[in-house]
Write a structure and sequence with these properties.
Endonuclease Iii, domain 2, binds iron/sulfur cluster, mainly alpha, single chain, Endonuclease III, domain 1, 219 residues
């Protein structure tokens, strides 16, 4: 079976096994997604959620409000998520830049053509390729597959991307295998597979729903 066909079979199985999380359809605005992504660096989803809730209770999550907020007050809200001093500083800085250079709207960047928008996003503090791709995919429906640690590990084990591929190589390899309208599902479903079965240490190959299509499965 060729790689593209195998990739399609894997996606089909994952669609049947997992349910997409509800938050996908809850429609957060781009700035909220950016703040959540900054908070989520090196911390669990649970702590990200707690910190974001606390920040939302203390402040309106807008560039205008957060650009003027006292850094120590932002820090207080983010403590549970770790690296809180750094994250608070980045959130404040990025808010100021969005206010000063983009009229207070991240949408101004997201409306640009894909490559230009991606480049501008990556010039913002705290925004690397993954955060840029998350914003482009989730907030602007642009054709990209963000590659987090799960997507990278799982797609390599499944033989969908080269084992020594870097971020760009993994992203582009996956994009060649799937249709742009499926990119969001591919991103989410590979993460869910990685969390539940294809764990970094001791993957649960015997129970894995896509083991038939996996060249790395443990016997
Ligand atoms: S069979 Fe094992 S290595 Fe392959 S995707 Fe499933 S859990 Fe990962």
């Amino acid at each position: 079976m060729n790689k593209k066909k195998r990739a399609e079979e894997i996606l089909q199985i994952l669609r049947e096994v997992f349910t997409l999380p509800r938050w996908i359809s809850e429609g957060r605005n781009p700035f909220e997604i950016l703040v959540i992504t900054i908070i989520s660096q090196n911390t669990s989803d649970k702590n990200t959620e707690k910190a974001f809730q606390k920040l939302s209770k203390a402040f309106l999550i807008t560039p205008e409000t957060l650009a003027k907020a006292e850094t120590t007050k932002i820090e207080e809200c983010l403590k549970v998520a770790g690296l809180y001093r750094n994250k608070a500083r980045i959130i404040r800085e990025v808010s100021k830049i969005i206010m000063d250079k983009f009229g207070g709207k991240l949408e101004t960047i997201l409306a640009l053509p894909f490559e230009e928008a991606r480049k501008k996003l990556m010039q913002l503090p705290g925004v690397g390729p993954k955060t840029a791709d998350v914003l482009l995919l989730f907030s602007a429906n642009k054709p990209t597959i963000p590659v987090d640690t799960h997507v990278k590990r799982v797609s390599k084990r499944l033989g969908l991307t080269p084992v020594d591929g870097d971020y760009e190589c993994v992203r582009r390899s996956l994009q060649l295998l799937y249709n742009p309208e499926d990119y969001l599902e591919v991103h989410i479903l590979l993460i869910l597979l990685g969390r539940k079965y294809c764990k970094a240490i001791k993957p649960l190959c015997k129970q894995c729903p896509v083991k038939t299509f996996c060249p790395s499965k443990a016997e």
